[in-house]
Amino acid sequence: xxxxxxxxxFIEWFIFFKLKYFxxxxxxxxxxxxxxxxxAQAVNYHKGNSIWKEKNDDIxxxxxxxxxxxxxxxxSILIAIIxxxxxxxRIKAKKDVAYPSQRSAVLLIHGxxxxxxxxxxxxxxxxxxxIKDVYDLNLSPPFSSIIDFSQKLSEKIKKLKKEGYNSFILxxxxxxxxxxxxxxxxxxxxxxxxxITIGTPxxxxxxxxxxxxxxxxxxxxxxxxxxxxxxxxKEMPDLKIICFWSKLDNMIIxxxxxxxxxxxxxxxxxxxxxxxxxxKAFAKRIVEIIQEK
Length: 293
Known about the structure:
Elements: H1 2-46, H2 59-82, H3 84-88, E1 104-109, H4 120-128, E2 134-137, H5 146-162, E3 167-173, H6 175-186, E4 192-198, H7 213-218, H8 224-235, E5 240-245, E6 264-267, H9 280-291
Parallel strand pairs: 1-2, 1-3, 3-4, 4-5, 5-6
């Protein structure tokens, strides 16, 4: 009886201990989301690019939308973390029959400190809305340079070309957009028809100053890597670049740095850094862009 009693007490203590720290982690993550949002908005306000200066709604409605955006971004971060194991263990989809003269593939490229699991919902949404040939990859080791990551992308594209694909649309979230651009521009690959970036720090982000690894340092504004990328763009001006960005992006500081020079850009209303990739409406917009000639 004593053993059963102490076993029960231990289980109850263990559950309480684990739950306590679980909720503590959730609280810390929410505070981090709130902190990054406030810092981003303070910098944007200073730069004259703040959403506060453009509010068209009633102040109550406006504040409600801001709060909803912060909560949605927080939940998106949780989803991205939960999906990390899915990025480690490959989930195979039904393979289509290749027609080499017609095949075009879409490649999803994840961002800093994530893996391909983060973009799985977007991958499945694109397939649901008619884009069947959607692929992804993991960029590793996580603290390598963006140039090294572009080599990983190169290997993936070579493999797909052997399978019969002859044109590609690259979709990169955050740092993934820089990986896509560096690959397309440095190799002058004419098989890349479009590069779509989502919250990508084309001109760097101030948060990169506290980021770890080579890739983190390469995203600091005015870094040697970003200067090299700018010079490469001038050598291949016809590459179609489409940028999605948001004034409420809590990771790209200032937010305008998510717009590349000579690109087609779209501002996302009331959207954080990760939120768009889990949106059905956003996935449908991406499908429209993919299908445009």
